[in-house]
Amino acid sequence: ETGVTQTPRHLVMGMTNKKSLKCEQHLGHNAMYWYKQSAKKPLELMFVYNFKEQTENNSVPSRFSPECPNSSHLFLHLHTLQPEDSALYLCASSQVGTGGEKLFFGSGTQLSVL
Amino acid sequence: DAKTTQPPSMDCAEGRAANLPCNHSTISGNEYVYWYRQIHSQGPQYIIHGLKNNETNEMASLIITEDRKSSTLILPHATLRDTAVYYCIVSYFGGATNKLIFGTGTLLAVQP
Predict the structure, then answer these.
(1) Confidence of residue A76 (pLDDT cuts 50, 70, 90)
(2) Residue of B nearest to A88 (CA)
(3) In B, which residues are within 8 Å of A88 by CB distance?
(4) What is the pLDDT of residue B13?
(5) d(CA A56, CA B39)
(6) A-B Cβ pairs (cutoff 8 Å, strict)
(7) How many of the other CB atoms lie within 10 Å of CB of A37?
(8) For A18-53, what is each residue's pLDDT tens digit?
(9) DSSP string, B8-53
(10) What dihedral do alpha carbons B107, B109, B110, B112 form, nearest 10°?
């Protein structure tokens, strides 16, 4: 248990569906992240939020829409996805500080787009 | 792009020390060395990090060379549960820019 909870653990959706991934952290951190991990590829950073403000958008297609209503919750809204978007989506959190922050990851949502 | 170089795979006998090397020759003065590991289909797990001194915690030891261009993660007594992909990452965290860039890592296979 890392203190970062992601739901659902598995999701299957069609290309015309709209779904949302949820992440909640119980660590009192003020930064949250979305990463994508496609099969046999390194993790790719998608979005970063510091104090609820988006500070990084790593050229992610607009069919992925993040939302950070407060420092404990992070969502990833999905619409009109493609089969190549099938991947493990990981959420992480950290406490912004003096330079030695650690990221704590959730267990991820395994997404399959049919 | 990742700024580290790691061997793609290593084997280690159960109960023996696992020494995982990492080269980071372009590391800058304010960048830390982080190690994470990822067991299959789970989120990465933080192991240890350091700036220039050697570090030890309950999971592992981190040895950083004096010129900081390379480091070694040591798992003192590897078990089968230590089989995972190990990532060495150099990064500076601070202010509005906080991100870890993962490479392909080293797949450590602990053999019985």
Answers:
(1) very high
(2) B41
(3) 41
(4) 97
(5) 27
(6) 68
(7) 20
(8) 999 999 999 999 889 999 999 888 899 999 998 778
(9) SEEEEETTS-EEEEEE-TT--TTPEEEEEEE-TTS--EEEEEESSS
(10) 170
